[in-house]
Each structure stands twice: as structure tokens, then as C-alpha cells.
Specification:
It is a single chain. The chain has eight helices and seven strands, in the order ββββααβααααβαβα. By secondary structure, it is an alpha/beta fold. It has a domain of 149 residues: GTP cyclohydrolase II (Rossmann fold), CATH 3.40.50.10990. A seven-stranded mixed beta sheet has the order 1-2-3-5-4-6-7, sandwiched between helices.
Amino acid sequence: MKSGPPGSVAAPHVCYNTPLRMPRKTRPRARVQRKLPKAHIRIVARAKLPTRFGPFEIVGIEGRNDKEGAVALLHGPVRGQTPLVRVHSQCLTGDVLASERCDCRAQLELSLRRIAASPSGILLYLPQEGRGIGLMNKLRAYQLQDRGRDTVQANEELGFAADSRDYAFSAAALKLLGVRRVRLLSNNPDKVQQLENAGIRVVERVPCRPRTSLLSRAYMETKRTKMGHLLERL
């Protein structure tokens, strides 16, 4: 290493280590926690939404671009409370088309049922299709899975991380709704850690384990063994 001018002091080398243990066989990802100024996030509409699970208030939330948006379903008073919260990533194939390749629709319906039964709850629905890679890339990943890859191998073969989702906007949306503490419906420790890093206190992680199809068993086993999801042995 070249020395500087006489009398100068070399800048120390700093090594940054992630506080999370990365699941095996996944590509390490450096995370830079983003903080969204309040001016960059706003409520654009709110209305009543009766559902077969119970009555909700639906709230549209926008950020700076198309990737920063969310729909929140609110049940009961949430401002200043510690609501039961599900942060759910959009899954067209599962949520809408009832695909049995994943457990997304089953998790969504279980979450809505539990939130509707709680005194205070929020379902935050995010446009993060395919764990953040988008619908068309998700379909390319499905094609690779049909050739024998698992969900992690398929994403990485396409050049993506096993999970590309970022929850900074989710945290900002919760704060906009007056929420700083949550009981989180999730099996994903990375989601818990990201929300905590963004200023949302997760006082309890509530397992989200609905009944699922045998066809989704391999997908869930991959989430458990390769992505660190907190699932009992299937």
C-alpha cells in the first residue's frame, strides 16, 4: 500500500458486518436502510371495505414511484396501538389465480381472518411480486423450476438474490398510520429484522402457518432450509 505525504495518517479500513446470519446457499446482500422523508409518502384515498372476513377500511398509500406504494386494510383503531400486522407481498398467481405452487393465498386469507378477529389490525399489501423480481421474471423462475430448480436456484440463475424485498417503505407506511409497535404475522426473520432496523418495534412474531397443499411442500421446505424461514419440519 502506498504511503501518503510525510506526517499524514492513513484512513483506517472499516469492515461492516451484517447483524443477521445469512441462510445457507444464498447470495449475501448488502442492505442500506432507507429513510423516507414524510413528504415522500402520503395517503391518497380511504374508504370502507366490507369483506367475507369482516369489515375493513382500505387505505391507498403512495411514495415517490410505482415501486413505493401499498394498500392497507385497517381493522379497528390502529393509531398509537400495537396492532396485529401482516406485511404481505403481492402474488398474482397465488392470491388471485389460486396457484398451489406457493402458500401465499393461504397466508393472505389466514391473516385477514385473524386481523378481523383482533381489536386492532393492519394488512399491508405490497407490489413486491416474486419476492421483489416482478411478475415476468417470476414466470421465468417458474419455467426454471419446471426444469428441476428450486425457488432459490431459479432466482439466482436469473441473476437475482433469493429474496430481493425491501421493507423500508412498509415501515414508513406503518409510521404514517401512527403505528410504531406491532405484533407481526410472519415466518420470515429477515422481515422482522428489516422492520426493526427501520424503527418499527416488533413486540411479538406471530407464526403464519395455514393449511397448505401438498403441491407447495417443496417450496416451503426450500424457504425453511435455504431462506431461514421459521417453519417446523414439514
